[in-house]
Amino acid sequence: MITLTKDHRVFAFDGSAPPALRVPAGTRMRLETADCFDDQVRGPGDVLDAIDWDRVNPATGPVWVEGAAPGEVLSVLVEAIDFGSQGVMAVAPGIGVHGAEILKQEHRVVAIEGETVQIAEGIAVPLRPMIGVIGVAPAGAPVSTASPGAHGGNLDTRLVGEGAVLYLPIAHEGALFAAGDLHAAMGDGEICGTGVEVGGGITVRLDVRRDLRIEAPVLESGDLVVTIASAETLDEAAEAATSHMTRLLTDSLGIPLEVATMLMSAGGDLQVSQIVDPLRTARFALPKSAVAGLGGELL
Fold first, then answer.
1. How far from chain centre, in Å, is Cα 265?
2. Do 153 and 143 contact (CB within 8 A), yes or no?
3. Tens digits of residue pLDDT in 43-94
4. Rounded CA separation 276/260 (Å)
5. Phi-psi region of 181 (alpha: psi -120 to 50; beta: other; left: phi over 0)
6. Is the pTM of this model over 0.85?
7. How far is 150 from 74, CA to CA, in rounded Å?
8. Distance between CA atoms of 82 and 151, rounded to whole angstroms?
9. Strand (E) or helix (H) holding 119
10. Which tens digits make up the pLDDT trace of 27-42?
11. Which secondary structure element, helix H or strand E, spans residue 266, and what is its range?
12. Is 87 left (phi over 0), alpha (psi -120 to 50) or beta?
């Protein structure tokens, strides 16, 4: 299997960036990743104030996928996520929901033991591996890997985990795919600005879909189809994610707008992905089983 090391990391999604690797569609590959601090915080003695803040949220890539063209869709199957036995969490003034109340930067190097993460003495949360940054080159100017958008990027959506398939709208020849910012666990909202940040590896399969048209990321996770949107405010992101699901239902399955709206209101879930990045991210999740009786495919 092809491996792209974390030596090939970028800090922006950029349509003019030279590819680190060219692969045919259908390729399985592993991306080695640094953590969100670019591996600058490795132990309790490391100081957040001393790190280079221009080196945050690195993504490994970009990968040129042969045959990928603007207007088409890159399909990314997340086969596996692997990482070591420790992660990092941090809080800082001005960041997150309680940023105004937090007076100093603090970080913890936390132990990953079996199926749990030990946040503090007597406090543990279940392991829930996911990818924070994953995307393709955007249509316009370069976008920092710290920010989300229609191209993907720093979506911080906890459903982007093992077994999920993420669909990304392609804006440039080759797509220029990159990913990083792994978390051993992260809750919806990522309210302090970090999950359990880890470096590690991602095994993916990259394919091109020419039969699908989307305007922003769409995810398949188990029985769920999920539309993801980012905007200046959470309200705007929520409305965009909802509208994207409505269009998916009406365009793919021919469901009338009135019926799609009732279906989504009764059987779907509007959820928060993150509220701490430069743009806010929301998602709308709908079970595929809700429309199984129609005999068609949403994706």
1. 25
2. yes
3. 666 656 666 767 889 999 999 999 999 999 999 999 999 999 999 998 989 8
4. 31
5. left
6. yes
7. 13
8. 24
9. strand 116-120
10. 999 999 999 999 887 7
11. helix 257-267
12. beta
